[in-house]
Specification:
Layout (H helix, E strand, L loop, with lengths): L1 E5 L4 H12 L3 E6 L12 E5 L5 H8 L4 E4 L12 H15 L4 E5 L13 H8 L3 H15 L4 E7 L1 E3 L8 E3 L8 E3 H14 L5 E6 L1
Parallel strand pairs: 1-2, 1-4, 2-3, 4-5, 5-6, 6-10, 7-9
Antiparallel strand pairs: 8-10
Helix pairs in contact: 1-6, 2-3, 3-5
């Protein structure tokens, strides 16, 4: 499968790149700085660009079977629209090039999954992570209105632990530990692209 991954140098994006290549997929990594991704593989192609630039985004999408959006801001808590604007540009690029399959990583607590959060996590999201949550909310709205074959993946608290392949997935399910490995998020995304059982759904992944 030919996959374009946006946010490929982030921690979740990097897991996606590694696992996709291990599964012999052809990967196009959309990056601002190719030097940040040190993987070398015959099935890996780099396209340098900015998600705020529709032309470079569309270039990465042309000829792909599926698009994975794992855009984020790392530990930066400042107000941003990188997820929303980047995702809108991805959607427009997909519409331009007749690509249909879109996987988007957001977060547990976004939209209707808000009610699945504990009181502590609601306070955390409503204060410290408010700008991030606002960006995710508008990002998800754009995805739902896109007309594409989309799936939204909402991880609980992300960790850098190894892939287990064992996790809970469902719509608006509560988190037991409020943790999930980025490697398991990547595992779910790649399995969903093979099975296509959750098109048009937003699901939580958690342990």
């Amino acid at each position: 499968m030919k996959l374009a991954i946006f946010g490929a140098t982030g921690k979740t994006g990097l897991e996606l790149v590694k696992q996709a290549l291990k599964q012999q997929h052809s990967v196009t990594a959309f990056v601002r700085d190719p030097n940040r991704l040190t993987i070398e593989d015959k099935n890996l192609t780099f396209i340098s660009g900015d998600v705020f630039d529709p032309a470079s985004v569309a270039q990465a999408i042309q000829g792909q079977d599926a698009i994975i959006c794992a855009l984020g801001t790392g530990s930066d808590l400042k107000k941003t629209t990188v997820r929303t604007t980047g995702t809108i540009n991805i959607i427009r690029g997909m519409q331009e090039h007749k690509a249909k399959r879109l996987m988007v990583v957001t977060a547990m607590g976004v939209a209707e999954s808000w009610d699945s959060l504990s009181l502590f996590n609601k306070f955390f999201f409503a204060t410290l992570l408010k700008s991030s949550r606002d960006d995710h909310e508008t990002q998800e709205a754009a995805v739902r209105e896109s007309g594409l074959d989309w799936t939204i993946i909402r991880p609980s608290g992300l960790t850098d632990t190894p892939r287990t392949g064992v996790y809970e997935v469902g719509e608006n399910i509560p988190a037991v530990t409020a943790k999930i490995a980025r490697a398991d998020v990547a595992d779910l995304i790649l399995k969903e692209l093979e099975q296509n059982t959750r098109i048009g759904k937003a699901v939580t992944i958690t342990n």
